[in-house]
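Posting for a labmate who doesn't have an account.
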Amino acid sequence: MPTRVLRLNYSPSLLSQPIINKLVKRYEITVNFRQAHITLEEGWVEVLTTGKEEMIERAIA
């Protein structure tokens, strides 16, 4: 299956939202956390995604 490394940047308004959980459920992809840095003001997460290429493309669109 195709894999892709994604870096997701979070604004303060999104820090309390289950973004990764929604991606996994909605697009049937597997996510492996590589790195992350999260504070009360902002954050980013680097993940390795695995799944059908079409679903990965839809998830990042």
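Reply:
Got it, the structure tokens are right above this. The domain at 3-60 is CATH 3.30.70.260 (Alpha-Beta Plaits).
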